[in-house]
Amino acid sequence: GAGVSQTPSNKVTEKGKYVELRCDPISGHTALYWYRQSLGQGPEFLIYFQGTGAADDSGLPNDRFFAVRPEGSVSTLKIQRTERGDSAVYLCASRQTGPTDTQYFGPGTRLTVL
Amino acid sequence: SQKIEQNSEALNIQEGKTATLTCNYTNYSPAYLQWYRQDPGRGPVFLLLIRENEKEKRKERLKVTFDTTLKQSLFHITASQPADSATYLCALDASGGSYIPTFGRGTSLIVHP
């Protein structure tokens, strides 16, 4: 079946602009994660959804970052007033339910803020 | 402070040899530890999970050990192939079966033909 998909694959924006990044998880997966990965680093946790609700958003760096998952499937990560330091690859992952179920990652969205 | 340490230097080995990658952690009490493979421009791919009460896990040419006393996991690839060249990430939960895995920075493995 289809894996996790993310759109767009690349996004270039100017400092101060608003961006939305989309994640389509594997059908039936209740858990969805957003991570941010900078060059040479591992994925850094941002937010975790269980169903429609954000179960843990402790990784969001500040209030410019927000994510939603209104129907418990597709999720959108929203970044307001982008800064150059927001440039990174944003990864989405989904898994069925439990913490030890396999986590499946999407290919990521490379965000570049000029 | 909590740390997950993976060797930042690339590991270069000859085809056919066994590659061994290390993941050390401090100030965590993980219930499980995972290993992932990541190729350039792609998302990580899950390889193996080992629980705190397991010493060793195997899958084909892969073997993972988990020593909660030493706070270390070793990841072995036997009979390595150039196609095994990638970055390998370890991830663990913060404590007690948390739903949030925390990742190390990964170690690059280069297998030379």
Unreliable residue runs of chain B: none
Give the tally of β-strands of chain A.
11
Chain pair with largest interface: A-B, 26 and 26 residues
Total helical elements of chain B: 0
Helical stretch tally of chain A: 0
Multimeric organization: heterodimer
Straight-line distance between termini of chain B: 41 Å
Structural class of chain A: mainly beta
Low-confidence stretches of chain A: none
Strand percentage of chain A lies at over 45%
Number of strands of chain B: 11
State the order of secondary-structure elements of chain A, H for helix, E for strand: EEEEEEEEEEE
Mean pLDDT of chain A comes to 95
Write down the Rg of chain B: 13 Å
Q: Rg of chain A from C-alpha positions?
A: 13 Å
Give helix % range of chain B. under 10%
Report the biggest beta sheet of chain A as strand number plus sense, adding barrel if it closes.
7 strands, mixed
- Helix content estimate of chain A: under 10%
